Give the backbone structure.
Amino acid sequence: SQTIHQWPATLVQPVGSPLSLECTVEGTSNPNLYWYRQAAGRGLQLLFYSVGIGQISSEVPQNLSASRPQDRQFILSSKKLLLSDSGFYLCAWSRETENTEAFFGQGTRLTVV
Amino acid sequence: AQSVAQPEDQVNVAEGNPLTVKCTYSVSGNPYLFWYVQYPNRGLQFLLKYITGDNLVKGSYGFEAEFNKSQTSFHLKKPSALVSDSALYFCAVREVGTYKYIFGTGTRLKVLA
């Protein structure tokens, strides 16, 4: 069966510090991978998605970036965090076909202080 | 652009009563529609999906959803609500021709004992 791992679960970082959140998927190959941000426990904003190694699509211009160095690894990064980067970050994966659902990790609660 | 709308921020229902959480969609072509549930500080859990076929879709934990093409709706239902159903519910659409999942703003369901 497939599993998705996302870490860390919580993170407190000072303004201006770098960020690296990691997500890995097991039990499948060539998944589509996604980073979402959820603010204040409500709607999900799609930040990045990837359909293959090195292929990243950015949905929202900001000081975050994403990379996919391996087939089942997706990393969310920032060189300098802003207060507004605080939120709940969710990684997800889906199969290539369009009629399938996405599966989510447990999320990372990021607080920028 | 594809989108989903969840018109209710919160739905309150007494335990044992039927519940409905509303969702309407706007898509071009055939919609791929999904429902997810989120418990506090957790990732999203997949409940059910509509791809094609029968308009009544059954999912996890006794939930079902009714697809109505003429009303462009995909409402989530359960015949008898449990206190443990209290959570945040999201409707989503997978954008045709892309790999993106677009989420509604979420509806908080509160089941009262």
